What does this fold into?
Amino acid sequence: MEKIDFDEEPHIYKINGIAYPSVTEIVRFCSIDEAKNADPYAALAARERGTEVHAACEYYDYTGAVPEDLSEESAPYVAAYIQFLRDNDVKWKLIEHVVGNSCLGFCGTLDRMGTINGVNCIVDLKTSAKINVPSLTAQLQLYADLLSCDESLPPDTQLYGIQLMRNGKYRIYKCDFDSQISTDCMCLYKTLKSMKGKRYAVNEIG
It folds into this structure.
């Protein structure tokens, strides 16, 4: 049995003491243009909001209550999640669950796995204003790959992204299984990692 440790502050995953990349690191290539053009301060605020919303939704799943110190900005997103739960028959099996596999070479924290209206599914919660479907697909595919390794993934599982919006509403995105997009992201990650630190000779042309 592999021992997976996650240090949340630096966001580092280790399996048996060896560091491995996260799913987030691997799929970032799907949204590199968006990241390049993003306002860094807005991006930081969005990440902080996402972290708070995820923690509040987890708290609600376990307690049925909203954290008393939830910020005013994050409140509508959590309200959207609660509305999603009320509108659907949801039974979670895994919540904010750390997964990883040394053979596959990566780790991550799965938002949710369980059933929605009787359908087995893997779910990722999103708080961004715009959903990058290729990135979401790659992310969910990688989580499915990890769960398949320990045979904990039902064969009829579906992949869903739940967009929580600041107006208190939500949207459900159904993604198709696509092993190619996740494989491409992993290959690109490995290629860039192998090039890191290399020194190249500077030559004149002609």
Observations:
- Strands lie at 4-7, 12-15, 18-20, 90-101, 106-116, 119-126, 158-164, 170-175.
